[in-house]
Design goal:
Number of helices: 4
Structural class: alpha+beta
Strand content: 5-15%
Number of strands: 3
Distance between the termini: 42 Å
Strand order of the largest sheet: 2-1-3
Length: about 90
């Protein structure tokens, strides 16, 4: 059984979100921050609110899960999910 590395992302509101590294690195910005200068698996994201960071994590997790599950969604299903996901106020 492979152990997964967790990363803690801290929002502007100082809320901590613990996610698997595979989820965090789906965001290129977060990936570069991890590669460059994070300490103790904690990455500060001072321009992201709790709400926005939670949505970024949700999006990244969906894409990680889509590549890991036995029954992968089709490209059309994933695009439909993304189209619905970006419908925000």
């Amino acid at each position: 059984m492979a152990l997964t590395k967790n990363i803690t992302l801290k929002s502007l509101d100082v809320e901590a979100f613990e996610v698997e590294e595979a989820v965090a690195v789906k965001s290129q910005m977060i990936k570069h921050m991890i590669e460059d200068n994070y300490v103790d698996n904690k990455v500060p994201l001072p321009k992201a609110t709790n709400k926005i960071l939670a949505e970024v994590i949700k999006y990244c997790k969906k894409h990680v899960d889509a590549n890991c599950i036995d029954e992968k969604p089709s490209e059309d299903e994933l695009k439909a999910w993304e189209a619905d996901f970006v419908k925000v106020d």
